[in-house]
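User: Run a structure prediction on this.
Assistant: Running it now.
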Amino acid sequence: MRGGNVAVVGGSIAGCATALAVSRGGADKVTVFERADAGLRDRGVGIALHNDRYTELESAGYVAPEMPWAPLTRRVWTVRDGESEYGRAIGEQPFPFRAYNWGSLWSELRRRVPEEVTYRSGALVSEVEPDSDGVTLRLADGTKERFDAVVGADGYRSVVREAMFPGREASYAGYIGWRGTSADVADLPSDGNDAHNVVFPGGHCMIYRIPDGVGGHRLNWVLYTSPPESEGLHPDLRTPTSLPPGRLNSELTAHLRALVADNFPPYWAARVLRTPAETTFIQPIYDLEVPHYTSGQMLLVGDAASVARPHIGAGSVKALQDATALEAAVVAGGSWKEVLESYDISRGAVGSAMVALARRMGSAQVENTPDWSAMDKAGFETWWQGQNSGSDRSSGFGGHSLKRP
């Protein structure tokens, strides 16, 4: 990459971090291809970074204190308890995270991409054609451009991954995330510094406060559950997709609203049900492992490589850490072969461990939920520890350390 002409396919959080990484690594020319227009900054959903992971990424120069964030200190797991306004807490955990608005975090990363990098919005890469010493990208308008190396940062529907490993697609986990944001942040418990997990048979809903990008806050929530079995209700979920506002089937929306009304404590039910329809959407849950993060003159970062279900709270962390590791591999590598081997070794096993942990958490928290109503705090601790057992435990909730051996 040093001195070469490099393309980054995808210009979201992973793509901006990757452009920064390869620029620092000494690439002579960097071009980012982002299929969307400037509307990327309007994605107002919440993401969170564990405090320890934030410290590492700040030291590496990928995040900074001035990026708008909201503190989270505790996570409370709550089950409905009759008509009790807030329900009954069955578990409480330390939760040392920083909550971000996806759009504002992307904007800050985009601002940090060096001016000499060419960032092309509305540029759809339709095909990737590798050869012995380079890669050609075919764009949707029919034009072709050739590069010395290509990095796929184009998410779980990656065209770069398809070129590297044909037919390797993200698999539908069998359930969905119904997401929403609203300005309904007044009078939140504990001054808004808690993350709340409302649990119910067959799923849970995580609710927490995020910055709104203009000095205030918004309420962010995501509800995980299996959609109802109904012919024609969700015909395309097995093929990687998303259902934005305006594409939500009325029957599915009615089912989810009834689930909230029947299973949430009244306070949290009202917060979710008051969320405007224009800020709610459906995110089918997928996961994926790849055999390698590199192939020929191509590499993968973020969800273009391994896709972990979102329960471990580390999707954006992984993307930023992938970029950090790529920069380190490029700087230290004496040859292209050394760069590829170093990057693949440092990230491949980590990605697989995160996927495995997220699958266990998805099973315990959505697919095979316990009898929450019968659970006390001791039972909750036993249940929680069961998800974090195994050889990949060091990845943990919130992601692993960059210093992991």
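The two ends are 25 Å apart (CA to CA).
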